[in-house]
Specification:
Distance between the termini: 61 Å
Strand order of the largest sheet: 3-6-5-4-7
Largest sheet: 5 strands, mixed
Helix content: 25-40%
Shape: elongated
Radius of gyration: 24 Å
Number of helices: 4
Length: about 130
């Protein structure tokens, strides 16, 4: 086997160029960019987290406020849980505890953190702890 400059003679460097796919439409100058969330949602088949009527009432009754960023973190963690086969999860936040069905992508109920400390949670197969 002949080697030139420590490179195998059977290996040839090809010029770098973009692959051309026959029949593919080439984009015009317009760029259609999807957000990371949209790409993640479409790739993983995820849907936005829904809040049941019951959970909405509990959030209001117990004066529990969850900001947009926290909802995004919860949605992200629920996606991870779903990939691991978790179907029903307890999500514990600094100020609240949420029971969430990952198979339905729905918040089932909510309670404040103090109330959650004296409860026994059944029929869950995953727990997610989220700190601010």
């Amino acid at each position: 086997m002949k080697k030139v400059n420590n490179i195998d003679h059977r290996i040839h460097q090809l010029p770098q160029q973009a692959l051309q796919i026959p029949g593919a439409k080439h984009p015009n100058n317009q760029v259609n960019r999807a957000s990371f969330k949209d790409l993640l949602t479409s790739e993983l088949g995820l849907k936005e987290l829904k809040v049941s009527k019951h959970a909405t009432e509990r959030l209001q009754e117990r004066n529990i406020h969850i900001d947009k960023h926290q909802w995004q973190v919860i949605e992200s963690k629920m996606a991870e849980a779903k990939q691991k086969g978790i179907t029903d999860s307890l999500v514990v936040l600094d100020n609240a505890a949420l029971l969430i069905s990952t198979k339905n992508n729905t918040v089932v109920t909510a309670m404040d953190r103090k109330e959650a400390t004296s409860r026994i949670f059944t029929n869950i197969n995953g727990t997610i702890l989220i700190e601010k």
